User: Fold this.
Amino acid sequence: MKKTSWLIILIPVSLLVLGGLWWRAKPVASGGLNWKTCRQTHRLQAGDEKFSFEFSFENASKKPVTIKSVTPDCSCVSSSFAETRYAPGQSGKIPFIFTVGSRYGKVKKTVRVITDASPQPVLLELVFDVPVVLDIAPRLLFWKKGGSNDAQKIKISATDHPYRILRVTAVNRAFQSEIHTVVENREFEIVVKPTDTQVARSSELIIQTDCPYAAWSYIVCHLRVE
Amino acid sequence: MRRGVTSSATCALNKSAHLREAAFLLSLALVVTLVLSLWHPWVDFQSGAGAVTVMEANKGDWAWVDARARDEYLNGHVPGALNLNEDDWEPGLQKLMATWHPGRKILVYCNSSRCNSSRSVAVRLRRELGTEEIYVLTGGWEAWRLDQSR
Assistant:
């Protein structure tokens, strides 16, 4: 490639890159306020129950701005923020708490902020990356009454940390189960089958692991012939 | 000696050309990464679960799942709907697994078109129940209530 043609490509590409970086880094003006960012991504630790974070802003206008309301789209995101007036040049923060509950994977939420400076709400976007401690699927196995009693599998994988399956028990003994290790301490298959399918029956299948988190140490799946 | 110099110069030229190529590819990769990082986080909001309008919902036989918070559910819900949300997943999932049977379609709703919890519940149910027959109500509880008041 000639030097000149290389420059013709590189200069616009570099400008695009720098422009993009500048655009991302600069405060976002919305609702009469300059927000440090309108989107945040947080990676949580396995076992985290709550996570605190905040959005910062500055009133860069020449008039006072009042934040009238802060409304998350999920009860899992809460804020104790009350209506507050900000003088020109004044900075502020809205603190939030995210309650993880039973969520995992990429959790996406939004918060609507209403100010007296604009009829359009400010949309604050959130992504929480909650580690999947144990991935278990499916949690429900069916056999058709009178049909084949072929074995079915529940797959379990420990993606974040290695864990062991300690015990698998079908409450109803008309179902048999076995633990197959696919990858030591990482991937397992629980192979389950009913002794027969002549009678409609159901059972819980209890999977016990050595995972320290309550939600993943004792897992209940369902088995049904119907 | 001369050959050696020439050889050395050629080698340096090649190295430089490779570096330029690498810089060019790196710049391109940066642009692509930047564009993807700006675009990606919000594109899959709509994916993962099929949407059903209130009109379509009225015609079918559905297992209704209310993905809102418990207090909102207690204030009013679609008759027969089961409360299942990610605040406390297991109790709702256990109830659903004990009563639902394959072949019955599941319809999940949250407050309105602005909420996202019905989609995340639907995606998770598809995986944990091992069925694709799980849908999301367009407009959620607000749309259903509006339809009932007509």
In short: The first helix of chain A runs from residue 3 to 25.
